[in-house]
Amino acid sequence: MSIMVNSSKTPTGKAKKGQVAVRIDSGSVKACFPRSYCNKGQIKLATGISLIDGWESKASQLQRRLQIELEDGKLDDGKGNFDLGRYQEILKEYGLQARLRLVKSETTSDDQLPPKPELGLMEVWGMYCEYRKHDLKESTFENVFMGCYVNFIESAIKATESQDAMKIRNWLFENRSLINVKKLIGHLSKAYQLAMRQKLINSNPYEKLENEITVKGAKGKKQNEIETESDDDVLDTTKAYAWDEVQLILDYIKNTPQISHWYSFTKFKLFTGCRTGEAIAFMWCDVLWNKEQILIRRTYDNQTKRFYPTKTAKGDKDLIRIFPMPKDGEVWNLLKSIPQGELNDIVFKSKRGKIILDNVFCRAWKGNEANKNKGIITELVKQGKLTKYLSPYNTRHTFITHQIFDLNRDEKIVSAWCGHGELVSQKHYQDIADRAMQINPELPANQQSQQQTELDLLKEQVRKQQELIEKLLDDKKYLGDISDVVMPNI
Fold it and tell me: What is the rounded CA–CA span in Å between residue 67 and residue 6?
């Protein structure tokens, strides 16, 4: 980050005598006027320029304009005092606004310096960021403090047209992630404390405000409150991809080396309809090869970093969902392609062999411009291969709508597989689950019925053959008994 914007610099980096400098001073961008311009000492004034990418360009433009105004004598109020009113007019021309205290010239004595301008919220934040810059990771500083938090603050100021702490806090509370808001308010309180220690301000309007924000996270909550992925619109086909689009998505992931490690995880979600946390928590002990089944019986929560059992849609009873995995089918072959670990090892891992974080998968799915990550779906939409962006959770919607609308599957069967229990009461769940286990999820319902009919016929033939064999065996035994009677030993 640059220290100064000035067209004429000395080898020390300071502006030449008689030059205006627009630079970072005490954590914010200020206009610093030469001492020679005023015999009362150097004047430093806030500019309202935000400390985000590209601030140097705006600072350079302002510097050149102020230099011209200075040389033309337009920053003198005619009585030898700095004209704060004219300075404010220049800022407004550039779309800038800084909190300055305008001093009436008639009350200014010859030996009085212009009063210290009040620091704006962004200036206090900029100073705090400069203070914290050296004890933070570079990525954290750039992406969080100078990226996410700056965006939050500027959005709140713009929306409320105010820098009042309570208005800022309330707007953030209603419009941004509570976890991040709570952290930001805490940092703002520390920022104002720092400014107070440097005697730049007199009070801390954010003191203890973060304590009033209660984040409704997983900690301290019941298990049935942890699952935040809603099934209210699970049958809405507009919130699902068509099955040919699913194949397109999977092919793109598989054939793109940078993201190919997401292929197995994504396909598993699409072909089972499980939730993201359930796919993350899936272990090798949940694969029953001999029964051609998999079990969905736990979920992983990134906030608490703990595993939890899955629950019924209503109530606190633990629920183990059984999903059929026909031999040599899509799910079977997918799991066979992954090197099998210990029973308690998770099946799907990150590129580094660690547990998957759902926010990392979301970034891979959507993209992240800051990290030059195009995003799986975002890129396919950009290429015109997909018509819309849907979140990672919609892989579940896609599976369910594919089963019901494409394969004509009974909704209760799909509900038993996926656990969106409005369609299946707990009382009848087990009966339907038993029936669901007899169905191949990869075949259309009509083919399944035909296959089932043929199977029933084959079973009937086997039954009749078995009866015939048993009858023949009985007849042989009967004849043997008779021979024992009519043919005595000689």
Answer: 10
CA–CA separation, 254 vs 277, rounded Å? 22
CATH of domain 228-443: 1.10.443.10
Q: How many CB atoms lie within 10 A of CB 379?
A: 16
pLDDT averaged over every residue in the chain:
76
Burial of 333: CB neighbours in 10 Å, binned 0-12, 13-18, 19+: exposed
Distance CA 148, CA 286 (A): 39
User: How many residues comprise the chain?
Assistant: 490
Report residue 316: phi and psi, to 5°: -105, 10
DSSP secondary structure, 329-386, as one string: SHHHHHHHTSPP--TTSBSSB-TTSSBPPHHHHHHHHH-BGGGTB--HHHHHHHTTS-
Q: How far is CA 416 from the centre of its chain?
A: 29
**How many Cα atoms sit within 13 Å of 15 on the Cβ side?**
23
DSSP-derived pairing of the beta strands 4-5 and 28-33: unpaired
Q: What is the pTM of this model?
A: 0.47
Phi then psi dihedrals of residue 293, to 5 deg: -140, 155
Residues 6+ apart with CB under 8 A from 38: 82
Mean per-residue pLDDT, 341-369: 89
Percent of the chain with pLDDT over 90: 22
Q: Tell me, what DSSP letter sits at residue 86?
A: H
Residue with token string 């301000």:
201
Q: Residue 307: in which H helix or E strand, if any?
A: strand 306-309
For the chain, helix, strand, coil in percent to 5 are: 50, 10, 40
Query: How many angstroms separate the CA atoms of 114 and 200, rounded?
Result: 15
Residue keyed to tokens 């311009």: 37
Tokens (6 digits) for 164: 């009042």
Q: Which of 462, 436, 434 is nearest to 448 (CA)?
A: 436
Return the number of other C-beta atoms located less than 10 Å from residue 8's C-beta. 12
| H or E element, residue 277 | helix 276-280
| 3-state SS record for 29-61 | EEEEECHHHCCCCCEEEECCCCCCCCHHHHHHH
Mean pLDDT lowest among 50-59, 171-180, 364-373, 430-439: 430-439
